[in-house]
């Protein structure tokens, strides 16, 4: 299996944006590998595009009713008109009442509603049309209703989706197409139905490629926007967002959240005595050493210069202090003159310090970091 993956990975990567790393290919398969910031950005984009889709359908759905009046008998077009009004109202409600929250669950719900509405309309209209004898003209117009699943399937291409999400959504439309065929079993033109079903599958494949390509571009752009180019960890701008998100999650789940504020001791002397390239190398080594001891849920941020933040969710003050002490004992690397690199660390925790806002935990950790420096550096301060 590993040989197959090593064989196909570089070939698959050749079809994707050049900025995408081989290690990021798994993110195109499942959302479980996505970072918190990527999930938030993607959720916002999905909901905004759902609302755009809903606006178009809310306007276009009743307009087509003019054609129904011209070609169908009164009992049929009245029923279809009522169905169209209800469908258009549902789309309008989705447009008006749904707003992006940054939650991927909300984005999934919005997409589900978006595709359920026209799917129900398709099945209901298909059943209505099957119950009436149609002339050649009205029959030709009724054929247009059969194109709705193809429009919806093609619409998936506007969303940045991973392969698993594409399969699930495409399956809903394929099941709806199969259900419509089942409801009209006795009068179904099987060769035509089979050809249409196969075409729907082909469109699903094309849209899957389009939407995963969008996701690949998004992964690349988000990574470039939120990471510090020197150390590869989160930058200050994205760090504020991460801290805010983690704070909200901790409040919502009533969990502890600890913030560690690192400041490398006497770092200016490295730049002054050995040059900025040597200073950059020290920063990279420090980050590499700290990352060896991080959990998957922890977030290391470069706050500026030689200052770093470590966001530790679901971690109380005692556990966080023990974790930082283990990092110190492991070492933060060496200075260019061969002496150990040390850091002054300030710790603050949401519950223990009785804080109400994420900016307070940042200010308190910063204050305690300065207390650690004033106390002689190369130490941890968790009070004061």
What does this protein structure show overall?
GO terms for molecular function: diguanylate cyclase activity. It is found in: Cell inner membrane. Pfam families: GGDEF. InterPro entries: Diguanylate_Cyclase, GGDEF_dom, Nucleotide_cyclase, Rev_trsase/Diguanyl_cyclase. This protein starts with a helix and ends with a strand. The protein has two domains: 20-225, no CATH class; 236-381, Reverse transcriptase/Diguanylate cyclase domain (Alpha-Beta Plaits). Helix 2 runs antiparallel to helix 4 and helix 2 packs across helix 9. The chain has 384 residues and is α+β, with helices and mostly antiparallel strands. The mean pLDDT is 87. A hairpin with a 2-residue loop joins strand 2 and strand 3. It has helices at residues 2-13, 36-63, 65-71, 74-97, 104-130, 136-143, 148-155, 163-183, 190-226, 236-253, 267-274, 276-291, 317-330, 358-374; strands at residues 257-264, 299-304, 307-313, 343-349, 380-381. 64% of the residues lie in helices and 8% in strands. The radius of gyration is 28 Å and the shape is elongated. The longest helix is centred in the middle third of the chain and has 37 residues, at 190-226. It has 14 helices and five strands. A five-stranded mixed sheet has the order 2-3-1-4-5, sandwiched between helices.
